[in-house]
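User: What would this chain look like folded?
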Amino acid sequence: MKALLVRLSAIGDVVHTLPALAALHDHGWETGWVVEPPARPLLEANPSLSRLWPAPAARLSSWGVAHRVLTGVRAKEYDVALEFQGLWKSATWARLAGAGRVVGLARRWRREPGSAALLGERVELPAGVVHVIDENLALLRPLGIEAVGRREFPLPPAVIEGHEVARGLAALGLESFAVLNPGGGWASKLWAPERFGAVARGLRDRGLPCVVTWGPGEERLADRVVQSSAGAAQRAFPTTLLHYVELVRRSRLVVAADTGPLHLACAVGTPVVALFGPTDPARNGPFAPGDVVVRPPSLEADAPTGRYRVEGAVMDEITPEQVLAAVDRRLAGAAARAV
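Assistant: Here's the prediction, encoded as structure tokens.
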């Protein structure tokens, strides 16, 4: 049996779909995946994936490329297309793939509800399913696969990247260290770089130097963290996604907001302190029992904030002192488990 996964973006969302890929692979399915450029490195040479279909970025000028990709997809004759994104563009890819079945979440669970019209089978989420990983795993139930609760994240081998990261850390003089990631996709999710700098100073007082990671266009943001850290943090060397994975594997702790780098750290089992404001940590947050979420005080007593909620500057309510207290709890938990 052959299944096509359609999850075009973003990096964190692709990470949250990897357990569904692992479950399909373990049940003997041949798998393909349609994905846009930013997250491709997580799927190229992935041991659980049979075929990667590189979708172009969504714009009219890319229609010719998309048509060629779709021609190849349709020739593969997939038995089912699994649409994980809940958008018109992803539902269109799933519909045009020529699969015998097109499966996705029902209207009320989708970011763009009308896109459910393009599906052949609409899945209602069972009671008790909260985390987005389990939402994705619930889409496998029509295939006879019960995998809700699974947390396995197949990633490509990164031997070369691991060696390069080891050399980069040696050049920075770092062995035991924490990672601070101040960047991310939504401006409303971000925490002030000067506050990350204060956290770096606090971590230095605890004997833990920091490295500040950054993605394309985030160099100045990383520099602001370093400049406000009074020498407690260094800017990381350039990293691809797989370099970043190997970096956080070696880290004692990651502090980040609700972004792809946070979810990659969770996927490889690195202890995290996660900063959440406009999104719901029950749905998108860390899943390891010891990981700690810090929320703005005005939201701490809220019921779950919902699937998609964007507010103003709620992240400004989080203080460095709150984050450092969370760091202490997380590091203490990690030390206790190591004994």
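Residues 219 and 235 are 9 Å apart (CA to CA). If you want, I can go into more detail on any region.
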